[in-house]
From TrEMBL:
InterPro entries attached to this UniProt entry: FAR, FAR_NAD-bd, NAD(P)-bd_dom_sf
Name of one Pfam family that matches: NAD_binding_4
Annotated ranges, domain Thioester reductase (TE): 9-244
Organism name: Collimonas pratensis
Protein name per Swiss-Prot or TrEMBL: Short chain dehydrogenase family protein
């Protein structure tokens, strides 16, 4: 890759996009970054960006490596205003992390995750220097069907049927994938699907409490919709960001679709997760099985919720646990054969850093943590 080539990253003020920017700076790539940020001007965009990058562990010396000239002010819903920007002619790699990631039924989901993605592809297709367009999807876009052993292969075609998706978010990401392939067949597209991104191996959940609160809620309630021996595929955001950069910069890739997942190597069972929480001083029910409860009977937990998790809305928590309970009982492990073949190291197991996650959220009410996922 020529030193003048630029790496366009969208979603840099988000969790995964911001972590990718931090990793890029630490890898010596700061001068080659072009960052799409919603802002009135580059100064405001830099302010927004720095707040997020600091949250993700960037130091002052690392932040100082970014220049105002690397801020591309724009929004996925209005890219026509920046399509003629000369900096885009120097872009060789697009890392499209921007998305509305929420499990709420947000009215702007498809506008952002589908229409915005297609607008970005339309803006970048045909540019002479473009060699790779990385679309960051989600492994859960596979829907609710799996192989008999609950393994999910790294295949291209995903179901778009509403009944195959537990939440509109995963369907919106599947639609984005499908339409990119159909409408832009010449786009050098590579699809990366992270599994369940929780926490950071050095910062715990300080940058984001997304999803971690679910494990704490199950643990406090002593109930779970899955069996204790069932596994869950969780990866930390910093490892995920490193995998994205590795695939973005490698000269050739053997496959067009990759799961950024723990896979069989690093997925852990709910029993192992409970033991790790106990080792972190959070083991209220360690040593006995959780009550395995059907999703349809979660309402029966209401009295327990009021006593054990009094700092949140019981009705909202029950609704959330029903949703996450459906995901948990799928017992998915996402195959990552394509990823490992490209030289990406296995993800650190969730149990290796769950203590940091627990410590960093110890004084944050579960009701407050839930806001990360229900925007």
């Amino acid at each position: 890759m020529d030193s003048a080539d630029m790496i366009l990253i969208t979603g840099a003020t988000g969790f995964l996009g911001g972590a990718t920017v931090v990793q890029a700076i630490q890898a010596g790539l700061a001068p080659r970054l072009l960052l799409l940020v919603r802002a009135q001007d580059p100064a405001q965009g830099m302010d927004r960006l720095q707040v997020q990058l600091k949250r993700l562990g960037a130091g002052d010396s690392e932040l100082a490596q970014l220049r105002l000239s690397q801020i591309l002010c724009g929004d996925l819903s209005a890219l026509d205003s920046i399509a003629a920007d000369p900096r885009l002619q120097r872009v060789s790699t697009v890392i499209h992390c921007a998305a509305l990631a929420t499990f709420a039924n947000h009215p702007a989901l498809e506008t952002t995750n589908v229409d915005g993605t297609l607008a970005l592809a339309a803006m970048m297709q045909g540019r002479p220097g473009l060699r790779r367009f990385l679309y960051i999807g989600t492994a859960m876009a596979c829907g609710t069907h799996s192989a008999s052993d609950h393994s999910i292969p790294e295949i291209a075609n995903l179901s778009l049927a509403q009944e195959d998706h537990l939440v509109p978010y995963t369907r919106s990401k599947a639609i984005g994938e499908r339409l990119l392939r159909q409408r832009f067949p010449q786009l050098p597209l590579v699809v990366l699907r992270p599994s369940i991104v929780v926490g950071h191996t050095k910062l715990g959940c300080t940058p984001s409490q997304s999803i971690f609160w679910v494990f704490m809620a199950w643990q406090k309630l002593g109930a779970l919709t899955a069996a204790m021996h069932d596994k869950i595929d969780v990866v930390p955001v910093d490892w995920c960001a490193g995998a994205i950069l590795h695939l973005a910069l490698k000269d050739k890739l053997a496959q067009p679709v990759f799961h950024l997942s723990a896979g069989t190597q690093s997925s852990r069972s709910f029993r192992q997760i409970d033991s790790a929480l106990a080792a972190a001083g959070m083991g209220n029910v360690c040593g006995r099985d959780y009550e395995q409860i059907e999703v349809g009977k979660i309402d029966l937990l209401l009295p327990r919720i009021k006593i054990r998790i009094p700092d949140c809305s019981p009705r909202l928590l029950m609704r959330a646990l029903k949703l996450y309970g459906e995901f948990a009982k799928l017992n998915y492990v996402f195959c990552n054969k394509n990823l490992l073949a490209e030289g990406v190291p296995s993800a650190p197991p969730f149990t290796d850093y769950i203590g940091l996650c627990a410590t960093s959220t110890r004084h944050i009410p579960i009701g407050e943590q839930m806001k990360w996922d229900f925007k």
